[in-house]
């Protein structure tokens, strides 16, 4: 068996392009997921019928695989006249999926804030919306940051599933290069190394952010 890892350097620019797209998908997906998750969390905490809609969304998304959700968005929606590009489908799928998990993270963070803070804010005439925006959410987001960081890392790795809907991210790029050069072990090892490097850097950055925020609260 002949292994030649030097071939990786020949195609390094292509791999870097795929890695860049992977990061872009993960970042946009998590931003979209944060927005969805925060809205769903507030809906779940409301005393209106909206909480049932949020509960159904969370139950549905957490109970089905991301891969199936991507297939439904990219291959299924065109059957009902809704055409979405592979990139938009990837971001939408990652966002909707991560949003269901982040909704529970945000809900837990909000419920961890003592009720007395809300009562004190309302007694000062701040109103429910202002209290939530200026008092509750900043503290809840700080509490939820470790779980949010973990979901970001998961989304980065889950972006590899977008390769099945023709997205030329890191995994599909590696697959294409492996099939044309017959150097499967080399390119899949390189892909694994890229993912490990990205998650390591991301983890270090997020841990640094958590430490700074915890230092400010002490």
UniProtKB/TrEMBL annotation:
Pfam families: BPD_transp_1. Belongs to the binding-protein-dependent transport system permease family. One of its GO terms (cellular component) is plasma membrane. This is Amino acid ABC transporter permease. Its main location: membrane. Residues 19-206 form the ABC transmembrane type-1 domain. The lineage of its organism: Bacteria, Bacillati, Bacillota, Clostridia, Eubacteriales. Keywords: Amino-acid transport, Cell membrane, Membrane, Transmembrane, Transmembrane helix, Transport. InterPro entries: ArtM/GltK/GlnP/TcyL/YhdX-like, MetI-like, MetI-like_sf. It is found in: Cell membrane. The chain crosses the membrane at residues 20-42, 54-77, 187-209. It is a multi-pass membrane protein.
């Amino acid at each position: 068996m002949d292994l030649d890892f030097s071939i990786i350097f020949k195609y390094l620019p292509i791999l870097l392009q795929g890695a860049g797209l992977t990061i872009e998908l993960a970042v946009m997906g998590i931003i979209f997921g944060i927005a969805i998750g925060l809205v769903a969390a507030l809906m779940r905490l409301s005393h209106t019928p909206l909480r049932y809609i949020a509960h159904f969304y969370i139950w549905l998304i957490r109970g089905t695989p991301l891969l199936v959700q991507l297939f439904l968005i990219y291959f299924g929606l065109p059957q009902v006249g809704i055409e979405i590009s592979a990139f938009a489908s990837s971001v939408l799928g990652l966002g909707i999926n991560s949003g269901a998990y982040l909704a529970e993270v945000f809900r837990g963070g909000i419920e961890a804030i003592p009720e007395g803070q809300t009562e004190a804010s309302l007694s000062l005439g701040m109103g429910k919306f202002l209290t939530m925006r200026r008092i509750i959410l900043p503290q809840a987001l700080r509490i939820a940051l470790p779980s949010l960081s973990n979901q970001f890392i998961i989304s980065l790795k889950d972006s590899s599933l977008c390769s099945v809907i023709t997205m030329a991210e890191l995994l599909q790029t590696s697959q294409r290069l492996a099939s044309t050069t017959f150097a499967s072990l080399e390119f899949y090892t390189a892909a694994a190394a890229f993912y490990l490097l990205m998650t390591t850097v991301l983890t270090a950055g997020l841990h640094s952010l958590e430490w700074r925020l915890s230092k400010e609260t002490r």
